[in-house]
Design goal:
With about 500 residues, the chain is an alpha/beta fold. The protein is about 50% helix and about 10% strand. The strands form three sheets. Strands 1-3-2-4-5-6 form a six-stranded mixed beta sheet, sandwiched between helices. A five-stranded parallel beta sheet has the order 8-9-10-7-11, with helices on both faces. The longest helix has 18 residues, at about 165-180.
């Protein structure tokens, strides 16, 4: 039986699995009330859960294959169920072949009885041996219970003083952390020509085997797609590691918020260790990272570094990492990567003409084939954008509702802009905003309100006589502004730099 989450699925990143949690339990056991309460709470917090029951074996098998986390409720009658024991065999087989997580709950049973098949578990197996000639299955079941009994999990009698509501709260908190850490990042609506580059970086990551520590640097100009590329690689390989963390905009967060590096250290430690960690200063954070990061084989992305001090604060020394760990660093500064002594360096390259044309057309008309009347203008704009994805996206969005005369004007203006001057090219989209109110809102956000809650910013603008809901909506439509999953206003670094340059 599947319990679907209540959230709008379209607003979430696509996950490569169908269910977040597969819950294996003895349905008619004394734990039924506990199971119902646990499932209801999982549903309420937005976790897709499949509850094993009396459905067809093939349906349960498919659900196991399509799940990333398994909660095994080991109650008094669990071992009496052949269905439960066969599910456990399947789950542990998957765990051995991938980085899926198995979380046992010892519900009014002693973990040692599970491991040794003693007590009530011995009674269950005595009945199996009388009723079944499947001696091999019984041996496999016993081995599976021994393995699951040795896994870290929760014992009702020793957690939350036996109070089920508190017990469930603790379980939910950990499951949410695990689901969040395994959820792929949103990349882009139209990831053109991306995956050949992803494959190249993956080869660099795993070159020479999996048992060493490797650090890969990705460099290139602003707007070329370094972050997008790193996110795509992150999504492809995060399931191969015990823990993973993507720290975006390190330069910005470190320099422009109070205790920025400390905040990043807390986020890194919390994500890797799956619990909230309070850090009071950078030096303490470095010590905590040294002590904590070696515990797991990790995959870490540090996006947009511009200073070696940032790497020292967030990663320390290479030998602090457990063998098999991987790190990707993105930066605009190629020389910084030489100073940091990367294993490999990868230059993010511009799009070719065909991919550029497709990307621009997608944002200009939401179609893969350009309108015939505009074909020559399209080629001209694409040529002057020089394969820079950000410029193609922003200019495409700017021209999406414009007449052909305005397209011609944009082409003429682009001809006058020096090569590689991406700020000036992007300014065309700013100059084309519909009114001074929208321009003022854009510039204020670029200078003051980046990474601030939308509701807070709306209140400030309203008090100043603006109409922020309309103006923010226009900026989002023109790809000059985005809103992240936490309802914070977001801007690409290059767009933000362009806005601040206009003010200067």
């Amino acid at each position: 039986m599947a319990v679907e989450k209540g959230k709008d699925q379209s607003s979430l990143p696509v996950r490569p699995w169908k269910y977040d949690v597969f819950l294996s339990c003895k349905g008619d056991d004394t734990s039924k009330t506990f199971v119902d309460h646990l499932c209801l709470t999982l549903c309420q917090v937005g976790i897709n859960t499949f509850i094993a029951g009396d459905e067809q074996l093939s349906e349960a098998a498919n659900a196991i294959e399509g799940s990333i986390i398994f909660i095994i409720i080991l109650s008094k009658n669990y071992a009496s169920s052949r269905r439960c024991l066969n599910e456990l065999l399947h789950i542990l087989e998957l765990k051995n072949n991938s980085k899926r997580l198995v979380l046992p709950i010892f519900y009014d049973v002693d973990p040692s009885d599970v491991r040794k098949q003693s007590g009530i578990f011995a009674e269950a197996f005595a009945r199996h041996e009388i009723c079944s000639q499947e001696e091999n299955n019984i041996l496999l079941w016993k081995d599976a219970l021994n393995k699951v009994g040795n896994l870290p999990g929760w014992d009702l009698q020793h957690v939350a003083q036996g109070f089920e509501s508190k017990f469930i709260h603790i379980i939910i908190e950990e499951v949410l952390q695990e689901v969040k850490s395994r959820t792929p990042l949103h990349i882009t609506e139209h990831p053109l020509a991306l995956f050949p580059h992803v494959n190249e970086i993956q080869k660099l990551l795993f070159k020479g085997g999996c048992d060493d520590v490797r650090v890969i640097g990705i460099h290139g100009m602003g707007g070329i797609g370094k972050t997008t590329l790193a996110k795509a690689v992150f999504n492809q390989v995060l399931q191969h590691f015990e823990a993973s963390c993507f720290l975006e905009n390190v330069k910005l967060q470190a320099s422009e918020r109070h205790n920025g590096l400390v905040h990043l250290q807390e986020k890194l430690l919390g994500t890797i260790l799956r619990r909230k960690i309070k850090v009071y200063n950078v030096d303490e954070g470095i010590t905590l990272i040294k002590e904590g990061i070696w515990q797991k084989k990790v995959f870490i992305v540090l996006d947009d570094l511009d200073d070696q001090c940032q790497l020292t604060a967030l990663l320390g020394e290479r030998d602090w990492l457990r063998p098999g760990s991987r790190v990707i660093i993105t930066t605009r500064d190629k020389h910084l990567l030489k100073e940091l002594q990367m294993n490999e360096q990868y230059e993010a390259r511009k799009l070719d003409h065909k991919s550029s044309l497709q990307l621009f057309t997608f944002h200009a008309s939401r179609k893969a084939i350009p309108p015939e009347d505009y074909s020559e203008l399209l080629k001209g704009i694409v040529t002057y954008c020089e394969g820079v994805p950000l410029a193609l996206k922003v200019l495409g969005a700017y021209l999406s509702d414009k007449e052909i005369t305005e397209w011609k004007s944009a082409v003429e203006k682009l001809k006058t802009i020096p090569s590689n001057d991406i700020h000036t090219k992007l300014r065309i989209s700013f100059d084309g905003l519909p009114d001074d109110f929208t321009k003022a809102v854009f510039l204020d956000i670029a200078c003051f309100f980046f990474k601030i809650q939308k509701s807070e910013v709306v209140g400030i603008f309203k008090a100043c006589g603006f109409y922020p809901e309309v103006e923010i909506c226009k900026l989002i439509d023109k790809s000059l502004l985005t809103i992240d999953e936490n309802k914070h206003l977001n801007m690409h670094n290059v767009i933000r730099d362009m806005g601040q340059e206009i003010v200067h």
